[in-house]
């Protein structure tokens, strides 16, 4: 799948920032690809880049309109169809990370055909996966797990890839969600894989490798989330993780989209070890990543210090304060993987 850049980011009329997390992820990690954004009345998200009309976007060289939205069920709102058709008529390709296939909407399919434009459904793959086998394979793998969905699992592994490479470690980000695939140009949206093949797809994403190579696998959902725990468990078993980082957002009291209480970090650690032992008896936590965006700096640093003391693990906000402590712990736990 070759998606033409640069992008016009379509945010629709999403109600909050989290609903546009795909767009934010691309803008944060591939800012040079994002020329502008297109928003409908009532949109509560803002990437901080220019608002453009379709004509302005084309004039500035945009080649693809990216539907940068992640909603429950991955549905395509009916009132967005006319905007997508207009983008195709203006000469843009359209790419989406939603579960709904663009080409399944007759008006969109017809517009793409008459304009000779491409439709990219990033959440869907033509790959055929085997069922997971759980056979031990060489190489090292780190997985991010969460107390909830949308707590920073992708940002943490992307920051770790950058930090570990800076320290001379052989590390690659492995995308398991639509935003990660947009960012890395490869990977599989695991939540669109048939359940029996989830763990096998992860084995395909992070196959046998050099014993010193790290695959940094983007986590999804939470083992405690009633909607997404099945995907999270398949990821854990397929990753055969040697190490994991717990990701957390400290201001939530219930899980996103449901009324269930948020699990504690210790509950996540304990259950991840218990279930992860099925495919890797040596699985262990190496740190805690906290999204402290809603906290002042002093409050954020105190929380991180308290969590580190409570759990005996390095705790940081990877975006705000960096990942040096996490990399230090990884090097200490797995010295044979260090370069030199």
From TrEMBL:
Domain D-glutamate N-acetyltransferase-like C-terminal: from-to ranges: 129-327
Q: Which residues belong to any copy of the D-glutamate N-acetyltransferase-like N-terminal domain?
A: 43-124
The name this protein carries in UniProt is EBNA-1 nuclear protein
């Amino acid at each position: 799948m070759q998606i033409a850049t640069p992008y016009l980011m379509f945010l629709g009329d999403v109600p909050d920032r989290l609903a546009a997390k795909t767009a934010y992820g691309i803008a944060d990690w591939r800012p040079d690809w994002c020329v502008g954004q297109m928003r409908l009345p009532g949109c509560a998200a803002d990437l901080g880049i220019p608002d453009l009309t379709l004509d302005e976007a084309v004039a500035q060289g945009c080649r693809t309109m990216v539907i940068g939205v992640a909603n429950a069920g991955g549905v395509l709102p009916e009132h967005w169809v006319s905007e997508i058709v207009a983008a195709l008529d203006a000469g843009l390709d359209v790419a989406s990370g939603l579960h709904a296939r663009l080409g399944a909407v007759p008006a969109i399919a017809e517009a793409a055909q008459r304009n000779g434009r491409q439709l990219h459904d990033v959440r869907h793959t033509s790959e055929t996966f085997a069922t997971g086998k759980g056979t031990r394979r060489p190489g090292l793998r780190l997985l991010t797990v969460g107390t909830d969905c949308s707590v920073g699992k992708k940002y943490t592994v992307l920051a770790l890839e950058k930090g570990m490479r800076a320290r001379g470690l052989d590390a690659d980000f492995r995308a398991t969600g639509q935003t990660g695939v947009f960012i890395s140009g490869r990977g599989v949206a695991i939540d669109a894989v048939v359940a029996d093949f989830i763990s096998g797809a992860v084995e395909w994403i992070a196959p046998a490798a050099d014993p010193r190579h790290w695959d940094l696998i983007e986590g999804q959902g939470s083992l405690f989330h009633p909607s997404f725990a099945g995907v999270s468990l398949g990821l854990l078993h397929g990753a055969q993780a040697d190490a994991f980082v717990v990701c957390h957002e400290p201001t939530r009291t219930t899980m996103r989209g449901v009324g269930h209480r948020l699990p504690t970090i210790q509950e996540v650690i304990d259950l991840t070890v218990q279930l992860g032992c099925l495919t890797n008896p040596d699985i262990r936590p190496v740190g805690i990543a906290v999204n402290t965006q809603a906290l002042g700096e002093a409050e954020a640093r105190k929380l991180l210090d308290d969590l580190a003391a409570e759990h005996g693990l390095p705790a940081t906000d990877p975006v705000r304060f960096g990942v040096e402590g996490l990399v230090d712990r990884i090097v200490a736990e797995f010295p044979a993987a260090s370069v030199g």
